Amino acid sequence: MTDVGKTKPSSAKETMDVLMEMSRILNTGLDLETLATVVRLCESGVNPEAIALVFNELRKESSAIKNDSNQSGS
Protein backbone atom coordinates (compact mmCIF):
# COMPACT_ATOMS: atom_id res chain seq x y z
CA MET A 1 0.00 0.00 0.00
CA THR A 2 2.81 2.45 0.80
CA ASP A 3 4.56 1.61 -2.47
CA VAL A 4 1.58 2.88 -4.46
CA GLY A 5 1.70 6.27 -2.71
CA LYS A 6 5.41 6.62 -3.41
CA THR A 7 5.23 5.77 -7.11
CA LYS A 8 2.34 8.06 -8.02
CA PRO A 9 4.21 11.40 -7.74
CA SER A 10 7.20 9.87 -9.52
CA SER A 11 4.93 8.51 -12.22
CA ALA A 12 3.22 11.89 -12.65
CA LYS A 13 6.60 13.61 -12.93
CA GLU A 14 7.79 11.05 -15.47
CA THR A 15 4.62 11.57 -17.49
CA MET A 16 5.08 15.35 -17.48
CA ASP A 17 8.75 14.91 -18.44
CA VAL A 18 7.74 12.77 -21.42
CA LEU A 19 5.01 15.23 -22.43
CA MET A 20 7.47 18.13 -22.15
CA GLU A 21 9.97 16.32 -24.35
CA MET A 22 7.24 15.62 -26.92
CA SER A 23 6.27 19.28 -26.77
CA ARG A 24 9.88 20.32 -27.44
CA ILE A 25 10.21 17.86 -30.32
CA LEU A 26 7.00 19.20 -31.85
CA ASN A 27 8.23 22.76 -31.26
CA THR A 28 5.01 23.84 -29.56
CA GLY A 29 6.66 26.67 -27.64
CA LEU A 30 4.86 25.67 -24.44
CA ASP A 31 6.67 25.98 -21.14
CA LEU A 32 6.19 23.41 -18.37
CA GLU A 33 3.55 25.45 -16.53
CA THR A 34 1.49 26.03 -19.68
CA LEU A 35 1.78 22.39 -20.70
CA ALA A 36 0.60 21.31 -17.24
CA THR A 37 -2.39 23.65 -17.59
CA VAL A 38 -3.23 22.16 -20.98
CA VAL A 39 -3.02 18.64 -19.54
CA ARG A 40 -5.33 19.62 -16.65
CA LEU A 41 -7.81 21.12 -19.12
CA CYS A 42 -7.78 17.92 -21.20
CA GLU A 43 -8.21 15.81 -18.06
CA SER A 44 -11.21 17.99 -17.17
CA GLY A 45 -12.85 17.19 -20.48
CA VAL A 46 -11.99 20.26 -22.55
CA ASN A 47 -11.69 19.43 -26.24
CA PRO A 48 -7.95 19.39 -27.18
CA GLU A 49 -8.72 20.83 -30.62
CA ALA A 50 -10.48 23.77 -28.98
CA ILE A 51 -7.43 24.36 -26.78
CA ALA A 52 -5.19 24.32 -29.86
CA LEU A 53 -7.44 26.80 -31.65
CA VAL A 54 -7.39 29.15 -28.67
CA PHE A 55 -3.59 28.97 -28.44
CA ASN A 56 -3.20 29.64 -32.16
CA GLU A 57 -5.56 32.61 -31.97
CA LEU A 58 -3.76 34.01 -28.94
CA ARG A 59 -0.42 33.69 -30.73
CA LYS A 60 -1.80 35.51 -33.78
CA GLU A 61 -3.18 38.30 -31.61
CA SER A 62 0.07 38.57 -29.68
CA SER A 63 2.06 38.74 -32.90
CA ALA A 64 -0.25 41.42 -34.31
CA ILE A 65 0.08 43.50 -31.13
CA LYS A 66 3.87 43.19 -31.24
CA ASN A 67 3.92 44.20 -34.91
CA ASP A 68 1.68 47.20 -34.24
CA SER A 69 3.88 48.20 -31.32
CA ASN A 70 7.06 47.90 -33.41
CA GLN A 71 5.57 49.94 -36.27
CA SER A 72 4.35 52.65 -33.90
CA GLY A 73 7.73 52.89 -32.24
CA SER A 74 9.66 53.22 -35.51
Automatic annotation (TrEMBL):
Pfam families: MOZART1
Residues that span the membrane, as ranges: none
Keyword tags: Cytoplasm, Cytoskeleton
Predominant location: cytoplasm
Cellular compartments annotated: Cytoplasm, Cytoskeleton, Microtubule organizing center
Tree of life domain: Eukaryota
InterPro entries to which the protein is assigned, alphabetical: MZT1
A single BP term in Gene Ontology: mitotic spindle assembly
Any Gene Ontology CC annotation: interphase microtubule organizing center
Family recorded in the similarity comment: Belongs to the MOZART1 family.
Name of the molecule in the record: Mitotic-spindle organizing protein 1
